[in-house]
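Hey L., structure's done. Input below.
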Amino acid sequence: MKTTLLIIVLVASLVSGGNSLAVSRGSGGEEILQPTPPADLLLILSEFADKKNLEILLQKLTDPDPFVRVEAVQALGEIQKEQSLVSACNCLQDDNLYVRAYAAEALGKIGQVDISFTLSRLLPALDDPSPYVRAMMMAALGELQDERAVDSVRECLHDEDESVRKMAAWALNKIENSQ
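Output:
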């Protein structure tokens, strides 16, 4: 009952734009309600939500339905954390080409979290059998704009697939213009 009342007070306080209350323990172990600025409370709540969402997304990466895995890896591309980066890199080995393609897209967004690690996983995967996946990898490398990828991107200018060659040209241009 105390928890429910506390939640109601917190929500009402946030809605009214005022300070909210946080529970702390006094020296005798008693609960003390103290004001917490709304910005601090929202930061705490968003960090909790992000951690919980990340856990849920990581679980969805093992779902048997490839479209659930695609949605999960796409969402990971919006979370700038090392754990989401590592998980997206692992998805480059998925059996489903769409999961691999969207893992590449995610890496183009979050790869800067650890660019060396990202390149160490992305560059060896450029021999993917799917031209769609290879093209998405070129797009990711273009977004990352790291000169260490230039040689690999240049090799893809001679890919058998036209879409891969076009994306390689775009990526190379983007990398070279960023220097």
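The mean pLDDT is 83. The CA atoms of residues 91 and 103 lie 6 Å apart.

-- N.
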